[in-house]
Design a protein that fits this description.
Helices cover 36% and strands 35% of the residues. It has four helices and five strands, in the order ααααβββββ. A hairpin with a 2-residue loop joins strand 4 and strand 5.
């Protein structure tokens, strides 16, 4: 009898986590932040793991964006999901040195999708 109760409670907890977006769903804003950090670091492996299937064709472009740039850093990055949508809005900027010239790229809104129970970065939201 006790085993049945434990099994029942375990199944109910699992169903509750799935219904609430848990069970590996993660935080879409954290996914976007991880992607941006991987992009400025040129971490190709991390980028590949964070890209949605639709963006896989752009993998090399995303991984090499700042390859020939020095002094790349994120400044003031703060990302937040917009309600229950597939959009994550970020504040802050990417600062990069091209030769002796400092350039700034504002962070914008990005689209995310859930694939295989995980949030994936899927490009800029328009």
């Amino acid at each position: 009898m006790t085993k049945r109760i434990i099994l029942f409670l375990g199944l109910m907890l699992g169903a509750l986590l799935v219904a609430c977006g848990g069970a590996g769903a993660g935080d879409p804003a954290a996914t976007v932040e991880q992607f941006m950090e991987a992009k400025i670091a040129g971490d190709a492996q991390a980028i590949r793991g964070l890209l949605c299937a639709e963006m896989e064709a752009n993998y090399e472009r995303e991984a090499m964006t700042f390859a020939s740039v020095s002094g790349v850093e994120l400044d003031g990055m703060a990302c937040e999901r917009v309600g229950d949508t597939d959009v994550v809005r970020c504040d802050g900027r990417i600062v990069a040195m091209y030769g002796t010239e400092e350039n700034e790229f504002p962070l914008v809104s990005y689209r995310v999708v859930q694939e295989d129970g995980e949030w994936k970065w899927c490009g800029e939201a328009y």
